[in-house]
Specification:
Pfam families: Hemerythrin. This protein is about 90% helix and about 0% strand. The protein is elongated and about 55 Å long.
Length: about 180
Amino acid sequence: MNSVQVMVMEHDYILRMLNVVRKACYKVMKGEDINYDDFYKMIEFIKNYADEHHHGKEEKFLFKEMQTKLGKLGENLITHGMLVEHDLGRLYMSDLRDALERVKNGDEESKLDIISNAVGYTHLLKRHIAKENDAVYKFGETNLPKEIIDEINLKTEAFELEAEKKGTQKYYVDVLENLEKRYL
């Protein structure tokens, strides 16, 4: 698999987690007890798999080359588009964690913040993933020189192998599948 194929496959896992997050929020909305451990697992998946593992490859390899090699259009697309959305996603997750803590400490009104941050994140990421899959990745593959694409593919392969040695992919797919059994 080349780097873009790996990233698209990861998007599929991330989209599945977004469905879990939404279903968990629906339970909160209906007044069911919050399963804090499950929410923390969702946040862990998003922080470590979606952000550090997946976005890490995008930011270190593909996006970096697009910023430096594709002129003003590449710079603007990545710097003022994709990276801004990555940062916004991080803010949603930070605010979600804070809201969970407030509710645990008795602030019932912060359930609104749990739902709004979690669902806001799902909406952001669904649109973000569609842009990457349908436009950003294709723009990069079409316009970056072949030798740069080959270098990105090699770096991605090495990154994936190192993560595989640590069990990263398997661990987070297992987390996802366990949460899907409870929420979907």
